[in-house]
């Protein structure tokens, strides 16, 4: 695989393409898939646990399940654009690595919390 050369900053270092894709795959699996699966289970398969996120409740009430999926896709795409934009601009590692790491963290915490609430 190749590298993406990042220059113009003290923090710059070549960003490995495999590293970039691996982080985003992990973000998609934790935030996109695991959290989505456990949230859907809370919303549709149990009556003893309720979704605490107001935005998700509003979207699901208005649009249904596609609203939840759309929200996840939009958040991932915006985060991906922010991360990728650092390659073209200043190469700031916080902007480059921050979004996927944040999504992995949020997705893992939300999934584990949901799974615990569901008694899994």
Provide a compact summary of the structure:
This protein is mostly helical and 120 residues long. It is 72% helix and 3% strand. It contains four helices and two strands, in the order E-E-H-H-H-H.
Q: What are its keywords?
A:
120 residues, single chain
Folded structure, characterized:
There is one protein chain. The protein has a two-stranded antiparallel sheet. The model is unreliable at 8-14 (pLDDT under 50). The protein is built from 4 helices and 2 strands; from the N terminus they run ββαααα. It has one domain. It has helices spanning 17-44, 54-63, 65-88, 93-117, and strands at residues 3-4, 15-16.
State the order of secondary-structure elements, H for helix, E for strand. EEHHHH
Classify the helix fraction into a percent range.
Answer: over 70%
Separation of the first and last Cα atoms = 40 Å
Give the low-pLDDT segments. 8-14
Count the strands? 2
Count of separate DSSP helical elements: 4
Sheet/helix structural class: mainly alpha
Give the overall pLDDT as a whole number. Answer: 84
Q: How many domain modules?
A: 1
Approximate strand percentage: under 5%
Major sheet? 2 strands, antiparallel
Trace the largest sheet across and list its strands.
Answer: 1-2
Overall radius of gyration:
17 Å
What sort of overall outline do the alpha carbons produce when their principal axes are compared?
Answer: elongated
């Amino acid at each position: 695989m190749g590298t993406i050369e990042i220059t113009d900053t003290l923090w710059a270092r070549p960003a490995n393409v495999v590293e970039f894709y691996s982080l985003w795959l992990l973000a998609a699996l934790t935030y996109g898939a695991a959290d989505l699966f456990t949230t859907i289970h809370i919303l549709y398969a149990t009556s003893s646990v309720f979704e605490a996120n107001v935005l998700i409740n509003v979207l699901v009430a208005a649009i249904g399940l596609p609203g939840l999926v759309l929200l996840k896709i939009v958040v991932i795409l915006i985060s991906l654009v922010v991360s990728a934009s650092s390659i073209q601009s200043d190469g700031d590692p916080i902007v480059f690595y921050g979004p996927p790491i944040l999504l992995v963290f949020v997705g893992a915490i939300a999934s584990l919390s949901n799974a615990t609430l569901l008694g899994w």
